[in-house]
Amino acid sequence: MRSAPFTFSVSVVVPAMNEAENLPHVFATLPSWIDEVILVDGNSTDDTVAVAKALRPDLRVVTQTGRGKGNALTEGFAAATGDIIVMIDADGSTDGREIISFVTALAEGADFAKGTRCAPGGGSDDISPIRSLGNAMLTKLTNRLYGTRYTDLCYGYNAFWARHLDALNLDCDGFEIETLMNIRAAQAGLVIREVPSHERSRIHGASNLHAVRDGLRVLRTILRERDRRATRRVKLQREHATAA
């Protein structure tokens, strides 16, 4: 029986493609008090959906219409009905037992709770030296361009109030989704709190993440958002000049 520590509802969005072996481990970590679990299935060829439904009969399944993690999350967010949306991975790298820390941060006043492996209490069993270096460089660049104080840009464990989904205005398909969320949350003036998180190694299977390819996509996202901000600023200046 659900014993809710919060008065608001919580949805958990899990993008998955061919993760049947991992889902029993992932779902076992989910708190009993969450209100909704949405599995976004990327047209799996294994028993991902059947396993997920057997583990959680109240599961909501969204069949992904596009491709990529960013697209999967966007479709899952659109389907969520909770006051708070939490995003976790289906490979066992993110621990559902940490959800309470993210939701507590939101309950205490944050708009966006951002996971970090680099703050005291966080860590990673999985990140390689090249990915760690790339993440540090991209984090530093983002902080310099956007005035943020992030410690870990490229990490996919986040939670936010659903009412801010429009402000995030997510429109990318790949692993750069986390970077886009972090930048747009800052640009929208949302109250952001970093939450220490420990990343675990994938339990079964191989990751679809490619350090160089996806790192370049993240870099392009950072620079594109800077140009987008500059274009928007010029447009507003022209509108004000015309109105005057």
From TrEMBL:
InterPro entries referenced in this protein's UniProt entry, alphabetically: Glyco_trans_2-like (IPR001173), Glycosyltransferase_2 (IPR050256), Nucleotide-diphossugar_trans (IPR029044)
Domain of life: Bacteria
CDD domains the record matches: DPM_DPG-synthase_like
Start and end residues of each Glycosyltransferase 2-like domain: 11-161
Pfam family, one: Glycos_transf_2
Family, similarity comment: Belongs to the glycosyltransferase 2 family.
Name of the protein described by the UniProt record: Glycosyltransferase 2-like domain-containing protein
Organism: Streptosporangium fragile
